[in-house]
Structure formats: structure tokens, C-alpha cells
Design a protein that fits this description.
The protein is an all-beta fold. It has 2 domains: 1-158, Methylamine Dehydrogenase, Chain H (7 Propeller); 167-289, 7 Propeller (Methylamine Dehydrogenase, Chain H). Helices cover 2% and strands 49% of the residues. The chain has 1 helix and 28 strands. It has one helix at residues 10-17; strands at 31-37, 48-54, 59-66, 71-76, 82-87, 99-105, 112-119, 125-130, 136-141, 147-151, 163-165, 194-200, 203-208, 213-220, 223-231, 239-244, 250-255, 260-267, 272-280, 291-297, 303-309, 313-319, 325-332, 338-343, 349-354, 359-365, 372-380, 384-389. It has a 4-stranded antiparallel sheet with strand order 3-2-1-28, with no helix packed on it. A 4-stranded antiparallel sheet has the order 4-5-6-7, with no helix packed on it. It has a 4-stranded antiparallel sheet with strand order 8-9-10-11, with no helix packed on it. It is globular and about 50 Å long. The relative contact order is 0.13.
Length: 391
Amino acid sequence: MAVIAARGGADNARDGCYRVLNTGNRVGEAMLFHVCSYTGASGNGEGITLARLDPESGRLEALGSVAGPSPSWLAFAPDGRHAYAVNEIDEFEGVAQGACTAYRVDRDSGALTALNTVGSGGTVPCHASVHPGGRHLLVANYGDGRLAVLPIAEDGSLGVATDIQAPAGPVGADRAEAGPPGSFAISGHDGSHAHVIETAGRFVLSTDLGQDRVYVWTLDEGALRPASFFPTASAGAGPRHLAFHPNGRILYTTYEEASQLAVHDWDPATGRATLKQQLGSLPPGFAGSSFASALAVSRDGRFLYSGNRLHNSIAIFAIEPAGTLRWLDAEWTRGDYPNHVALDPTGQFLFACNRRSDNVTLFRVDAESGRLAFTGRYLPIGSPNMVAFLP
């Protein structure tokens, strides 16, 4: 059983040292977060690092870490008392599959205690989310494109997959037809590659980078049932991450290989998406190769941020009243290869996980203009892939 605890010991954490951090992350109060990293042959990380941010000074501090094989994504249960990491590996217990690890969360200290580990139902799992009912973990396996549903027991531990889906469909073009001039961005169009799986109301959405599709499902008694799918806006674009407008009726998708964003009208009653805009995630006039990564939408629905790997920037867009995007600027990440960008729960800060430069960088967000200002703060973490905040 593995435990991650704040420096100073578990007793100190519970007796007041970090109790102020369990406050719902209100403006002006210190907050806890976790950073997932690639380990071993895949990277320089130690596993999952617990850290804290002082919002007044912008100071970042690593408090400790829990080991694990390439825990590249962490998803919290709705009540914040359990968390689930995908272990982005090729083999688990002698079977060609990755793994998922369940943790109990100490709400006062942020400590993670490992409960159990099970197979992910596919190879190289890269993303997971907890269904709002809290009874199922949804897993996207990038290696073979399989989607798995893992039951969550009363104590928060995971069971073996109750359903595994392998969406069938043709693969997309090797190169993105709508990519920047001179782009040599080529990644996963050799087969099905599931990248993200998220819940939207009564539907579940998953991106398949290899098939150039976004799939729509329903979850029925622990099984995914196909509802529909829609293709990318251009051939070979490679859908990666999803984000919704706070109104729940606008869907944003980032296309990894085309370095583009797509805006869809989303019908929460039918699960239908209608394309309304497609635009680049790089500065106007850019030529060359880059890979778009993650999306973050401000809580007030006024701004959208998109990571650009190789270009090493965060694109900033204004969100118009109809949900369409308008280019504002791009901010240098102060690192290399931002696999993930995320806004903290208060919306004051944006984090960039720079995988190749082994650091997480911090930016203050101007609430009126949406612009980013680098705080000068770096958190040195080997091969960081994503940052997750206690709900």
C-alpha cells in the first residue's frame, strides 16, 4: 500500500499544517494539486507529485510523491474522496494491457493511499474520467483504441472491466490536409487510438485520433452503447481533447496534427454535434510543424486556452456570444512540449506541463482581457503530463 503525505508527516498535515488547504479553493487561499508524470523508460518522473500553490506570491512547492509506472492521468471521484490514475504501460499481469490504480484521498493533506490496481482493458491508457454517478471509471486506451468501463466499489477500489469497446472504422489520412504550411506533423493514423473519454449529460464522448472521429455513447448498466459519431472537420486532423462551454451547448475539440480547433453546437437532448467553426491554434502566418495538446475554458465562458507543442505556446482566444472563437494572442510556455494546460479552480492561474523540459510553469490570468502573465515560477518535475486539482 503506497501513501503520499505532505512533508512534516501525516500527523502534522492533519493537525493544522495544511488544513487550510481543504477549503474548496476559494480566491486568495492556498491550494493543493497533483502532477502526473511519465516514469522509467518513458520519462524522468517519480509518479504523482503532490504540490501546493500560494496564490498571493505565486510560490509553488512540491510536498511529496507516490511512485507508480507512468501515471499519466488522474481523475477524481465527484466527492473528491477517491482518485484514479491510468498507468500508461504496455503490459500488466502478463497481459497486453495497461493498468488503472485507485487511491483514497485525504481531503486535509491531499495524501493519496493506493487501494488496488487492475487492468485497463487495452494498451497504453492515456485518459480516464469518473462517471458522475461515481460508480464507473471510463478509460481511453490509446495503444489499441479500446474504451473500457471499470466498476467502482463502495470503498473506492476498482473492479475488472465490465465492458470493453473497440470502435471499428477506417483510419484517417497520414497528414492533416488543413495543417500549417510546411507541417510534417504525423502521429497516430496507423490504427484506432482513443485519446479522451468524457461525460456530457446523459452521453459519453470519446475522441479517436487514428480514425478522425468523435464517438458519442450512452452508459447503460456498466456498458457503453453506441449513439452516433461525427468526423473531424478535415482529413487527418487527429482529434485529441474536448472541452465544453459552461452553458453545456458548445463543444470545443482540439485537433493534434492539424493544430486546429473545431467549434460545434451541441444538443444535450440528442447528443448531436453541428460544426460551426474551424480555425488554427497557432499564430496567423505560422508555417512549420506543431502538435496541439489540451484545452481549458474559463469559468465565465469568455476565454479559451489551447496548448501548442513544438511551438511551445498557449493560444488565447476570446469566446464570442455565439460560442465561436476569436484569436487574441499566444504566450510562450517558458518550457518545452506543453502536453497539458489547465486553469486552477478559481480561474486566477493557468498551469503548463512542459514534458520535455521537466517543469510546470505558472501564469496569472487577467480576468478582463484573458491575457496571461508569467509569474516567474517553475515547479521542477520530471516529464510532467497533466495537473489535477482537488474538487
